[in-house]
Amino acid sequence: MKVTAQAQTILNFFSADAVLRILGMVLVSVVLFSMTAVTDPGARFNDVGHRLMCTCSCNQVLLECNHVGCPISGGMRDELQARIDHGENDDLVLQAFVQKYGAVVLAAPLTKGFNKIAWVMPFLVLVLGFLGAALLIRKWRLRTVAMPALPDAEGSEERRARIRKDTEL
Amino acid sequence: MPVFGSFALLLALVLAGYNLVAGAVALRQLTTGYKGFLSAERLAETARRAGLASFVTVTCAAFALLWAAFSNDFSVSYILHHSNRALPGPYKFAALWSGQEGSLLLWAWLLAAYGFVLRLRHKVDVRLTAFASTILAGIQVFFLLLLNFAAPPFALTPGGAAAVPADGFGLNPLLQYPEMVIHPPMLYLGYVGFSVPFAFALGALMMRYPGEKWIHITRRWTMVTWLFLTCGIALGMHWAYAVLGWGGYWGWDPVENASLMPWLTGTAFLHSVMMQEKRGMMKHWNVWLIFSTFMLSILGTLLTRSGLVSSVHAFSEGPIGNWFVAFLVIILVVCLFTFILQRDHLKSEHKLEALVSRESSFLFNNILLLVSCFTILWGTLFPVLSEYFQGFKQTVSAPYYNRVAVPIAMMLLFLTGIGPLLAWRSSSFKGLRKNLVLPAAAGLVTALVLMLFKVRPWQDAGMFYSWVCYTLAAFVITAISAEFLRGAAVISRHTGKNIPASMFLLCRRNTRRYGGYVVHFGIVVMFIGLAGSAFNRSVEKEMSFGQSINIGPYTLVNQSNTQDSNPNFDTEYSLLDVYRGGVKQFQMSPERRFYHASQTPQTMVANHTTLAWDLYVVYEGKNPDTDLPIIKVFLNPLVMWIWIGVGIIIAGTFVALTPNLSAALIARRVIAAPLSADTELEVVQVGS
């Protein structure tokens, strides 16, 4: 009896609700942790260097430009390293590069002005898609008439055929 | 040969034109009952035969171009610019896709080949095939017009015979790699192949096809085409990784994006088509998915060949953008017109009955796939919009897609795990929660174990997404495995077979369902590999004899720096001994070539691949001041998992394409003694 009770306690602990609650807590704590900024200079060089493009018209991210003897990327990398060593924050570094090379130096649009649309649009479409689907499902469900239950004794053939059809894909 | 090739192309245009016109007239006669000079059936048959003959003539043109490449006929301007005498034989085949005109000829040839198969198999459904054949002929006419008038592959070198150089300018060095002999044809088989489901869908709609047979035919063609496109994209990724020398496999370049968009809509169709087959739902949606997939194939070609957006695939640009715009507009108008006229034919037979059901999971899966497609299209076109509104082309590169597309991909991965747990029509929350416990626990344990092994999701966005990806991967793999095991256990109980044998039988009984699960499993394995990129490391150093580089557990010691030469290229390379734990493991020799004909340099990556990581070494060139080679070493974790995942996806698709084991065979293999009705139902439910 005692063993059964213990097993029940363990099962309760691993019940669907508990598992999902723990998962939620872990996720929330991770999101909180992720709000901490990156401060290591090496990681910053890597992070900001991947937000800039090489301007030698190779269409590659600055730290991934692998042109042999590229006349541009070496100088840009040195400049980036110097600015990070000088203690400039990410925004200042990016602004300095935009002033010198133009806005095309940024590997992704900034979240300012017209460029905000680039970031907002995909998530807006996603939300609209989900909302549309939810409304559609609601409309369908309201129109659907509940199917009468199939008679169990005589209807086993039909029932079998229906299940076969319902599960064949 | 150039004259023969040009004539073959002209003849192909005439034949495809006849197929289109005669086919359309015959179908009109059949629909209206109008009697013409020839009976409608005979006219349709002549159209079909003209379509078959067009394949022969386009084949002759393709042969003529290859002949010109192999015989070094530099009087053909295209061969002059894309080949040379020292080019190795297998790469001469690349003449068919290394430039604008050749790749259009390859497209036309593959289209004619698909058409040939379709027209030969016309007895599957004579009338529907006649419609599809006529529509396909329309597409053929467009490409043959391009080849005859806008981008002729047999145009002669200006200045006549006296001006023909003794040698050609050579093939782009980037294309001189074995995979390049397979990757473009595979990708084109995918792109072009979507013409066939498009032709069937449009044809079925035009003729108000009764029943759902057309959707079965379309689904099979789509699956085959989807498989080719998947292989093409994967080969492209592998080629980029092995050749371009930047340590990555996907750069979100417009050409790459162009191949991914129809793949996403094609994937959406392969899911939602099940709702039409089983429940008679989503007919409008499915028709537009097929239309969109084909139009995205054409749009991708327009984007990358018109110079509208910048791409590293600059070799494919040319002045044919307007032709593609016109073609795209015509397709859109025809699709819209047909849809508006015939939309009442696509009325749904059933409605969705519950929010928690397999149907709704397909619906949300479709939304996520289409939003992914929209995101990629939006990112690809944003530079054009930016130029219009801001006066400059805003770059939209990997950092944008990593932030926007990756979260959507994570949601898709989550749905991949949830989908199999849901029943058709309706699932109870209680049942769903019960089925969710094990996969959720597996995900949770994985998340915690990863954190114990120093995966810090708070470190940066890449690390966070990798952590989420592995958690979801564990969730999905457990959900799929549980599905397999549950089914196999029932089969095993009734047959006495062991679990692996029961799993095999289970797959054979419902190849589509379990083949689909295998594909999902492959996708998860691929995601595991992709998420490894968050842990990539690299180090760069000038290396003289005896100097070493340390990365991860490896130490690379320079043994020699050597130069060599052959008629095609000069080469310089370093020989590096690789040590692990002080013990020599193997040698690597990264290389840099300089091709004589094209006068361009090219790196040849040295890569040592294992299940855990790739040791990827690039010879970047020599420092002109010190004359020492610059070696860059990457340690890229889990890359091999991507290629294994692709292999599993291919295997799963083959399983899904295989016909189910017949009912008679099942009965013989499964049940010796008669079963009760309930037991039989259990077997049917699990096995099917």
> Please, how many helices of chain A?
7
Query: How big a fraction of the residues of chain A is strand?
Result: under 5%
- Shape label of chain A: elongated
User: Quick one: which chains have the greatest interface?
Assistant: A-B, 66 and 83 residues
Largest sheet of chain A: none
| Total strand segments of chain B | 10
Descriptive key words:
heterodimer; A: 169 residues; mainly alpha; 7 helices; 62% helix; B: 688 residues; alpha+beta; six-stranded antiparallel β-sheet; four-stranded antiparallel β-sheet; disordered C terminus
Briefly, what is this?
The complex is a heterodimer of chains A (about 170) and B (about 700). With about 170 residues, chain A is mainly α. Chain A contains 7 helices and no strands.
Question: Would you write up a description of this structure?
Answer:
The complex is a heterodimer of chains A (169) and B (688). Chain A has helices at 2-13, 16-34, 41-49, 73-85, 90-101, 116-143, 156-167. In chain A, α3 crosses α4. The longest helix of chain A is centred in the C-terminal third of the chain and has 28 residues, at 116-143. Chain A is built from seven helices and no strands. The radius of gyration of chain A is 29 Å and the shape is elongated. In chain A, 62% of the residues lie in helices and 0% in strands. Chain B has helices at residues 2-32, 40-70, 77-82, 89-92, 100-120, 126-150, 183-193, 195-206, 213-243, 254-279, 283-305, 321-342, 358-390, 398-418, 429-452, 461-495, 499-509, 511-531, 639-657, 663-670, 677-687; strands spanning 537-542, 548-551, 554-565, 569-580, 583-588, 591-595, 600-604, 606-609, 613-622, 629-637. In chain B, the strands form two sheets. In chain B, strands 2, 3, 4, 5, 6 and 7 form a six-stranded antiparallel sheet that branches. A four-stranded antiparallel sheet of chain B has the order 1-10-9-8, with no helix packed on it. Chain B has 688 residues and is of the alpha+beta class. In chain B, α6 (126-150) crosses α8 and α9 (213-243) packs antiparallel against α10 (254-279). Chain B is built from 21 helices and ten strands. Classes of the chains: A mainly alpha (169), B alpha+beta (688). At the A-B interface, α2, α6 and α7 of A face α10, α13, α14, α15 and α16 of B.
